[in-house]
Amino acid sequence: MKRDSTHRNATGGGISAALKSVALENADGSLISARGLVKTFGQLRAVDGIDFSVGKGEAFGLLGPNGAGKSTAMRMVASVSKRTGGELSILGMDPSLRGPDIRAHLGVVPQEDNLDLEISVRENLVVYGRYFGLPFSYLRPKAEELIDFAQLREKAREKVDNLSGGMKRRLTIARALVNEPDILLLDEPTTGLDPQARHVLWDRLFRLKEAGVTLVITTHYMDEAEQLCDRLVVMDRGHIMAEGTPASLIREHSSREVVELRFGSGRNEGTAAAISAAGLLGEGDRVEVLPDRLLVYTQEGEATLARVVASGQRPITSLVRRSSLEDVFLRLTGRSLVE
Amino acid sequence: MRGVYAGRPHAVLHRSFVALKTSNWFIIVTGFFEPLFYLLSFGLGLGGLIGAVTGPDGRPVSYAAFIAPALLATSAMNGAIYDATWNIFFKMRFAKLYDAMVATSLGTLDIALGEIAFALLRGLAYATAFTAVMYAMGLVHSAWGLLCIPAALVVAFGFAACGMAVTSYMKTFQQMDWITFILLPMFLFSATFYPITVYPEAIQILVRALPLWHGIALMRGLALGPPGPELLWDLLYFGVMIVIGLFVTARRLERLFMR
């Protein structure tokens, strides 16, 4: 029967000082450290022996398609799911022994919003803060601060049911910040949002990143990973396929540029062979055949495209672009991120 | 205990009070009137035909005074069960409320205790109002009668704890209807409207195993008095219900939401 002493002593703005005065980190200085982490559900090995570590102030990403094991890994870090095997240390504690103590210092944004629909926006923040044992004297001003952060001032008294998807998402993030967490965990933060709502959300997350909040983000959107993550791991079928910064991953696993060519259905395969055979590709260039288009990985996109056209091939559409994490994923797994 | 209990069921209870103002008050109020209507129709209406019946101590009492404590126990049960079953079912399966709670530093026992506390407060509210009606109608014959209120709290706690535990196994609305299907005959046959001695010996043993019978015996003993030591067995019965209900509920919450 233990109360969280850091929170019980915290009043008003003093919570930051109270939280920060305790050095909560692993022996190696990281905030999260996983070694050979495994989670099985019956026969399914959802997470199959992964290693990663997250440092203070870092924005760390888990990129992969649906079913890659990202959310399962995230739930273990959130200390709401017990690992089947391997080692996991969060803020210097073992989650299977000290779940509530770890969760006191985490902010969790789940994949599906689980806001309290029966109560108002403001009440959601205060009630959730009470779950952490935070005093009303701290929560009342904190709720106002977070309402502004979530840009929900006009909706503060409304029931959550009446909010749009983007607003709900922002409130979920604001709610996760109520205990001033050391680590903010975001599981697919922008899935299901329209492009405008996504950009508003990214802006909020950027501000947190600038403020030095440690972020862990799972996503299957490569643009989200590129924009928000300092470092990321690419996951597929429970395994980590690669790790690095977005730029280094692209450098290591893809070419500088990509030419996308569409020749119409049924013609892509044959044309790919023809392009390779005609010697139109430079040193290290390669062609990837997708159902709807060809991807030519090359150092000089424009020059390669010019050679293809000069050889007599007539693509219906063509596009030269920089390589992205999508290409990295395709290279590593032979599949697309979003299917 | 560490890991399942953080000493904060009051935070969960606070949430229920905040959400209370958007609740359907009509449903909450009907929970009080239901036993009252039984008391008026059976106690006064049917009671006029029946006359006096034998009370727990062998002396004759009016029929209304005989069934009133039983209806009091039933109202405590109903108040607790409404919240601990249907409301909890909705929160577990649809509102994702507990998914959010387990991600905080609450333990599953905090959640179970907080939710059950609210359910039993509702049972207590019904029981208190009903006890007031019993006093107003002159149906309380014992000086111990006021103890019906704390006793109602115990009865409500037992039903709330077990109700939430059972609800945690329910997956569909059809399964939830089973609870009603079990509660109605229990209400009718737990020696509510006539003494248990009308049953043959074998049936009596069966009825004595039912939780509502113990609630009714407890209330009847307190309201019509004088209460004998056998009421301690009734209290023990609810003590066991409370402990098992809480334990199972906390375990089930962990199974369901912390996979």
Task: Provide a concise account of the structure shown.
The complex is a heterodimer of chains A (339) and B (259). Chain A has helices at 5-8, 14-20, 70-77, 95-103, 121-131, 136-149, 165-176, 195-210, 222-228, 246-253, 268-277, 301-310, 325-333; strands at residues 32-41, 44-54, 59-63, 85-90, 106-109, 183-187, 214-219, 231-236, 239-244, 257-262, 286-289, 294-298, 317-322.
Query: Which two chains share the most extensive interface?
Result: A-B, 37 and 30 residues
DSSP helical segment count of chain A: 13
Rg on CA atoms of chain B, Å: 19 Å
CATH fold descriptor of the largest domain in chain A: Rossmann fold
In helices, the fraction of residues of chain B equals over 70%
Number of helices of chain B: 10
Mean pLDDT of chain B: 91
Biggest sheet strand line-up of chain B: 1-2
Oligomeric state of this protein = heterodimer
Overall tally of structural domains of chain B: 1
Q: What is the average per-residue confidence, as pLDDT of chain A, rounded to a whole number?
A: 89
Helix and strand composition category of chain A:
alpha/beta
Number of strands of chain A: 13
In helices, the fraction of residues of chain A equals 25-40%
- Strand/helix succession of chain B: HHEEHHHHHHHH
**Proportion of strand residues of chain A:** 15-25%
Instruction: Using the 3D structure, state the CATH architecture of the largest domain in chain A.
Output: 3-Layer(aba) Sandwich
